[in-house]
Amino acid sequence: FLSSLFYLSVFFCSLSVPPPQVVNVTDADESVLLPFKTTAVLPQHVTVEWTLTEPTERMVHVYESGNNQPDNQDQDYKDRTEMKEDPLRTGDLSLTLKKPRLTDSGIYTCTVCNKDGHMLLQRVVTLRWKQSAS
């Protein structure tokens, strides 16, 4: 019994979630990259959602069925977000946020779900506003 418990605990300990990545941005920056690269092979029919989870929850960007879905995002992010071309093939799910604002500071979560809504991947990025040196 103890040996199976040991193997079970080793198994669960190996499923660690990476700590949130911190990205700094200033008012001098024209854009900021919220990074998320994966080597996982992703199915064609997935949904990639970037959300601001703190301080308030907002839908920042949605990529679904091979296309960006601007109608599903919060008005504050309209025309300010961009993902790279063919993110599912390249594994680069990073999000570029243009014209960053102080109110963009917070915790962002990128969640990748399959067509049945099951989560496949998740990444947390903290965007921290820094005063520009001027």
Automatic annotation (TrEMBL):
Record GO cellular component, one term: external side of plasma membrane
Location(s), subcellular: Cell membrane
Basic and acidic residues bias: where?
A: 75-89
Q: Which PROSITE patterns match?
A: IG_LIKE
Entries under Gene3D superfamilies matching the protein: Immunoglobulins
- UniProt keyword list: Cell membrane, Disulfide bond, Glycoprotein, Immunoglobulin domain, Membrane, Receptor, Signal, Transmembrane, Transmembrane helix
Q: Which SUPFAM superfamilies match?
A: Immunoglobulin
User: What InterPro entries does the database record attribute to this sequence?
Assistant: Ig-like_dom, Ig-like_dom_sf, Ig-like_fold, Ig_V-set, T-cell_Activation_Regulation
Domain Ig-like, chain residue ranges per copy: 19-126
In Gene Ontology terms, what is a biological process of this protein?
A: T cell costimulation
Does the keyword Oxidoreductase feature in the UniProt annotation? Answer: no
Primary localization: membrane
Signal peptide boundaries: 1-16
Which membrane topology describes this protein? Answer: Single-pass type I membrane protein
Q: Where is this region: Disordered?
A: 63-90
**What's the name of the protein?**
Ig-like domain-containing protein
